[in-house]
Amino acid sequence: MRSPEAARQEWDRLKHDNSDLLGKLTANAVRADLGEKGIYYRVEAGPLTDKAAADRLCKALKERGLGCSLVK
């Protein structure tokens, strides 16, 4: 997203549409400098209990056609 506000709105939409997967998670808008592409904001959600839980969540989101990547 191009702004922290847009990232928060996207999180609200994702959480609403996928409450069975994301309902208990919270999220932050995290600044990402993509060089020539500019500044973007990613949605980082958690907490998750361990890497296996994060892997399962990412897999489930991808099965719904949503993007997901793991960060520490």
Description:
The model has no long low-confidence stretch (mean pLDDT 97). This protein has one domain. Strands 1-2 form a two-stranded antiparallel ribbon. By secondary structure, the protein is an alpha+beta fold. Strand 1 and strand 2 form a beta hairpin.
Quick summary:
By secondary structure, the chain is an alpha+beta fold. It has helices at residues 4-17, 19-22, 51-63, and strands spanning 26-33, 39-46.
Strand segment tally:
2
The share of residues in helices is 40-55%
What general form does the structure show? globular
Mean of all residue-level pLDDT scores: 97
Task: Please report the number of helical segments.
Answer: 3
Class computed from helices, strands and strand pairing = alpha+beta
Strand order of the largest sheet: 1-2
The helix-strand sequence is HHEEH
Sketch the major β-sheet: 2 strands, antiparallel
Percent of residues in beta strands? 15-25%
Instruction: Calculate the terminal CA-CA distance, rounded to whole Å.
Output: 20 Å
List unreliable stretches of 5+ residues: none
The tally of domains stands at: 1
Gyration radius from CA atoms, angstroms: 12 Å
